[in-house]
Amino acid sequence: MLIAVDAMGGEYAPREVVKGAVEAVKEFPIDIALVGNKAVLEMLLRRSKRRSNISVVQASQVVMEGEEPIQAVRNKPDSSVVVGANLVRDGIANGFVSAGSTGAVVVASFLSLGIVKGIERVALCGVIEPTQPNPTLLIDVGVNPNCRPIFLVQFAQLANILAEQVFGINSPRVGLLNNGAEEIKGNTLAKETHQLLKKTNLNFIGNVEAFDVMKGKADIIVMDGFTGNVLAKTIEGYSEIIQSLLELQEASELDRQLSGAALAQYVQMVSAIKKLDYKEVGGACLLGVNGNVVITHGRSRAKTIKNAIRLAYLAARQGVIEAIKNGQYATEQQPS
Hints:
Layout (H helix, E strand, L loop, with lengths): L1 E5 L8 H13 L3 E6 L1 H10 L6 E5 L10 H7 L4 H10 L5 E4 L3 H12 L9 E6 L7 E4 L9 H17 L7 E5 L10 H11 L4 E6 L11 E3 L2 H23 L3 H7 L2 H17 L1 H4 L1 E5 L5 E4 L5 H16 L2 H6 L11
Helix pairs in contact: 1-12, 3-5, 4-5, 6-7, 8-10
């Protein structure tokens, strides 16, 4: 199995991307194709004690953060995001991972891979791991700021496949993010989406409020991309603040100050906060395109890159794209 990795995307590329790739091939049974400036990548690989299952694919251009995605992808056909997506399109790679511009990766993937028949819009599915046995999937976390109800229903159906195939969750509980638990609550989008979700064969449990997100009330939480992006960044910011506060205390001090139940609670809290850290999960799956694409944080370092590669590997191994292609999706005329 070959996973293509955008070696030029992200604030710490290419050095940290190369480090993450080297770690990934040590842990997972995969080959990796690093996409980017061949001379630079070859040099970094030599310094990292390059392994035989890492290759380099030349890409002479880079899409920078701040560039308008559609224009950048069209004007830079030899950019690392376009070349990486093309490797999946051509059947050379089983998946593509990038920490570059989210908009550019989405556009490149859409133009190169196309969209699965029956799907109205692609969506980003993020993963968080609250203190529950199963992770929680959030969809959409950034692609579609303006949605119609049918989009959200299909997002739930896509995330349902990911939850079952990759995370082994049987009959995932689907919740609709809303400002109240009652069916009559919410704006027009929420109310109409609620009625459509009730007509599907999903395990729809109703509305979920923001304070329930971290409690594991639902395995999948559906929302529009604007709300999802705000929620995801709020969780990320909360995690970073708590981790910073914890780092102010030396472990030796805590050992002296805490004991017994208090120490156990502290250890549990640290474990829970780590599960919210984007570095632990790796990235978000771009669902709905005809290929396995994982988009990770622009500030990703080696650990995050490694975990994003792992997510792409698991999605490819478990046949997520094949399952999505074989799926039946709700339509505005006739909800399934």
